[in-house]
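User: Assemble these into one structure.

Assistant: Restating your components, then the assembled model:
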Amino acid sequence: MSDRADFDGRGCPSPLLHHTSIQLAHGAGGRLSSELIERVILPRFSNRILDRLEDQAVLQLPAGRVAFSTDTFVVDPIEFPGGNIGDLAINGTVNDVAMGGATPLYLSLGFVLEEGLEVDVFCRILDSMSAAAAKAGVMIVTGDTKVVDRGACDRIFINTSGLGIVREGVSLSATNIQAGDRVLLSGTIADHGMAVLTSREGLSFRSSVRSDTCALNGLVADLMDASPNLRALRDPTRGGIATTLNEFAKAAGVGIRLQDHAIAVRDDVRGACEVLGIDPMYVANEGKLIAVMPEDEAEAALAAARANAAGGAAAIIGEVTAEHAGMVSLVTALGSERIVDMPVGEQLPRIC
Amino acid sequence: MSDRADFDGRGCPSPLLHHTSIQLAHGAGGRLSSELIERVILPRFSNRILDRLEDQAVLQLPAGRVAFSTDTFVVDPIEFPGGNIGDLAINGTVNDVAMGGATPLYLSLGFVLEEGLEVDVFCRILDSMSAAAAKAGVMIVTGDTKVVDRGACDRIFINTSGLGIVREGVSLSATNIQAGDRVLLSGTIADHGMAVLTSREGLSFRSSVRSDTCALNGLVADLMDASPNLRALRDPTRGGIATTLNEFAKAAGVGIRLQDHAIAVRDDVRGACEVLGIDPMYVANEGKLIAVMPEDEAEAALAAARANAAGGAAAIIGEVTAEHAGMVSLVTALGSERIVDMPVGEQLPRIC
């Protein structure tokens, strides 16, 4: 192609010399694999560790305990209002590492691409990943790309695994949670799940709902500064805040009593939930966290969260009780109380 | 079900209370997800880190540099003579970590399951993973399970990411390779690729070919003991030894001259390659490595490899030259020499 010499590794739609869509040969380990890696993937994540192109990264980690997490992303559709499978995959693993009280540092990428995936779509996803990694302050240090035949996967799946260093003296776990603790939620709920759901073919109704996908490592650092005895952190993704809080109650053998009025839901999200008959408490978030801390640290934690862009709408949504161990309840505006159960089955498949 | 009380976490075919195949709800984060994880997956990998069931493992790593690697496995069929996608996924990442001169310690698992996958097939795969991890001496410390709708993936894909500690003073890289070095191959080639290919529907011809999938970390340790100035290690998976050696030649800016007679191919594998018109040099291996070391350490390295069960058929297959930089050549039994090129495209899709 005539633009071969001009190519700088960016600038779709012609990053691959002879193809505008992914071919099986791009995953076979030969010349076309090298071309895909060296012309399309590497230029977006280049750093001295990744550029070695060995089958493993060799890292000199700072002293301390290491947090290690993995997540595979299969969201459908792969692009949705507010994000795509790429930034979702970066932020999701950054957040899982951060929820261990850690500073995320290094990520791996594992792609499964379906034969026929448009190269320009892949490039858009990679650009989002690159931007999200830069924003979260993490480096992509190793990766793997497989291509499967048409019909053997749905366009693209992405695994990210991540490493971070746990802050000294911090040991977060659901089992730390005690009666009297307070429950902080960092913002509005159900944004991500409803953005994906309403953007699916046949379900769009001119919605303004956008995914909340974002990295929460900065917010986590601020919360740890403000609450030295922070008990536990978790990002309520699949299954929503109802599932995360049930997991907390079960792991710690405590009750959790929530105040309905304190749980914020955007008007457009609430509207979409009502139309579809879905309870926002069970819908996935991708840029929110739940933190539990002692009562006397709750005020400082809340102030710290609100001062961070990712926690501007933070609120204390409930308290931990000794009674009703293993159960989550919700006090409504009228003062009645109902059980918030663990969901049994599938509300929203392939939301992340 | 009447067997509920007797269930011990093993013993298919009834590990899930109400289902003999995977449902979308098993990936939704609710009760059925918990059931799948706690009754089927956890009992096979149980350890104090994984059992915490947090979204990340917190590890106290030994001092030293960390090797970090990732690989997604999409092999078709998922069960083949000599192994299945499960032990392949464990051994593959153990080997990628080990090839960095490291002792593999911890692995993550990321499953993508297709709705309808038989639970007993999944259990068989998990049992193989558990056995392979025990044999390699690695712990599974964190994981993720997604379920996609029928037709959105091909039964099961598995990502494994791994961590290990690099031996002190060791710094392996293809760029270390120098003219005069020797090239060691740890055994016969093309076993894995031909086992998968001949087991595919329509291609089986009562073959005795079996995959060579196995963990090579013990062999790597023995080679490092025997060759203090070991230059580089790599396991020649996708693209076979031809691809790995071309990558070495290119990265180091050297030539590599191979002796055809020294490269061992099992008779049944050679027969299958001839029937299908495939060059075994380009076929994937999953239990072999290529090591490059200084000439004066080659004899000790060879003896060490042969003393290890995974290297019994090891041989010195060639030498590194200053001329023909970036190229690999093969000297035949008749003394003629031909170029062994990088493969352009797809020989064998979904071999790992």
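The CA atoms of residues 262 and 317 of chain B lie 5 Å apart.
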